[in-house]
């Protein structure tokens, strides 16, 4: 891959650990994490009782940042917080447009009047947020004030910041971000995730979500327990494990990465920029491993499988087949994509190293 020299291969295979864990269930993951990183997890749990850190997640869209943080919360609990800058901006936009949210709007404006500092007036920044001024970009200083408000409302804990820096000119802000959010004595860390474009493309094309809970799955790469067959169209579809509803594709996803290629390339430039920064520790995570050497580093159940389906006329049920899935990375190398828990094991081990635990 492009960053192969910078993103080393890490070993999750542990000598003497022979069980195959079901990584699709909380119980299976609990046993897996204990077997693969139990000692390191205990070190981090002890650290998080009285310390925090600020981690900036740098990766292309759909690289799994939210999933990795969700798994960290599954292991460590509420001492881990995931702050998605995009979600913060979108939520603020909704409130500022909603006439029924008068009290919250007033609170937001009071907060911004106190904390926002920038070259654009606050009124103009709000207009840019609401899209009334299409010529003006949303100032980084305004975004940071919104993020600070979000963090101020959270219990103190370790922060995973998703979506900042987003632009190249925002990278320098990261050096002072922990001071801005009153985490000035806590370590800050860049976490970069390398993922082939082809994996993102497959994730997008086959992604589906539950209409009720918005939980994402993937018809090809992350099936649910129950799969049904539409007799009229011949289509196989997933049912949400929690709500039993038919999961549906998001508008535009079937086009894959092409509509967002420019954004993905910009995300890659941010990772390039990170390698030139000094003074902030870096954690490097790989989503994919070369197929010809993968099993030297990981166990087979840590690899993303491919799911295919067949309608059984006799039983009137769908049968699901799981098989190995390989794909070409950005350099044309045949690779396996790792399941999220395997990447999180590597994240935990590198965190312990960076924090010198």
Distinctive features:
357 residues, Rossmann fold, three-stranded antiparallel sheet
Please tell me about this protein's structure:
- The chain is an alpha/beta fold.
- A hairpin with a 4-residue loop joins strand 11 (305-312) and strand 12.
- It has one domain (26-354): P-loop containing nucleotide triphosphate hydrolases (Rossmann fold), CATH 3.40.50.300.
- The strands form five sheets. It has a five-stranded parallel sheet with strand order 2-3-1-4-9, sandwiched between helices. Strands 10-14-13 form a three-stranded antiparallel sheet, with no helix packed on it.
- Helix 3 packs across helix 6 (140-152).
- The protein has helices at 26-48, 65-76, 85-97, 102-115, 122-130, 140-152, 174-180, 197-205, 261-274, 294-297, 340-354; strands spanning 54-58, 80-84, 158-162, 188-194, 207-209, 216-218, 226-229, 236-239, 282-286, 288-290, 305-312, 317-324, 326-328, 334-337.
- The longest helix is centred in the first third of the chain and has 23 residues, at 26-48.
- The chain starts with 25 loop residues before the first helix and ends with a helix.
